[in-house]
Amino acid sequence: MTSEEIGYRGPTACAAAGITYRQLDYWARTGLVEPSVRPAYGSGTQRLYSFRDVVVLKIVKRFLDTGVSLQNIRSAVQHLRERGFRDLERMTLMSDGATVYECGSPDEVHALLQGGQGIFGIAVGVVWRDVESALSQLHGERIDTGETLVGHNPADELARRRNRAV
Predict the structure, then answer these.
(1) Which residues does the UniProt record annotate as the domain HTH merR-type (predicted)?
(2) Dihedral of the CA atoms 49, 51, 57, 63 (nearest 10)?
(3) Which CATH number characterizes residue 150's domain?
(4) Cys-Cys link to 94, which of 49, 62, 121, 159 (CB 3.0-4.6 A)?
(5) Would you say the pTM of this structure is higher than 0.90?
(6) pLDDT of 2 above 90
(7) Which domain, by its residues, includes 128?
(8) What SS3 state is found at 11?
(9) Which conformational region is residue 44 in: left (phi greater than 0), alpha (psi within -120 to 50 degrees), or beta?
(10) CB neighbours (10 Å) of residue 55?
(11) How far is C-alpha 144 from the geometric centre of its chain's CA atoms?
(12) How many angstroms separate the CA atoms of 47 and 34, rounded?
């Protein structure tokens, strides 16, 4: 199955992104990172996040951990959303703490560093692979049928047996 055919419920997205459910809920309600597969419609419904949504959640977490303001993160996420998250895996996001910059090439990164100010970067490809690895061990859900997809967690023998029985 391709990553576009799988969705992840809130607790799974939290585990892969390294955030709390409270953060996830707040970010969804305020529109920072909304689930692109299925939003929650009232009490009892489950949000469903795409792989790219989870990557963006982890990027937001990394920016928060380094002290970037939520307002600047919101601008960066809006920029990524407007681009349609194209080429996300090949991108480097840089920040001086006040502004977030998108760099698509080593020359752009070098040009930013020439400014002489303190800058940090997030290589999105590394975040992408971290999320891929984490989600491979967690449960997903087929978008078309809702079938639970069991991750490759060797400690989850009960879930594997349950899946075989169905």
Answers:
(1) 16-79
(2) -170
(3) 1.10.1660.10
(4) 121
(5) no
(6) no
(7) 1-162
(8) helix
(9) left
(10) 26
(11) 21
(12) 9
Give per-residue pLDDT as tens, 111-149.
888 877 778 888 888 999 999 999 999 999 998 888 988
The counts of H helices and E strands in the chain are: 7, 7
Tokens of 158: 């009960």
Q: How far is CA 59 from CA 13, 96, 121, 141, in A?
A: 13, 15, 11, 23
pLDDT of residue 12: 96
Here the tokens at position 147 are 């079938």
Angle at which helices 10-17 and 21-29 pack, to 10 degrees?
110
Domain count, the chain: 1
What's 32's DSSP letter? S
Give dist(CA 88, CA 103) in Å, integer.
11
Rounded distance between C-alpha atoms, residue 152 and residue 140, angstroms: 11
CA 45, 48, 54, 60 dihedral sign is: negative
Cα–Cα distance measured from residue 112 to residue 58, given in angstroms and rounded to the nearest whole number:
23
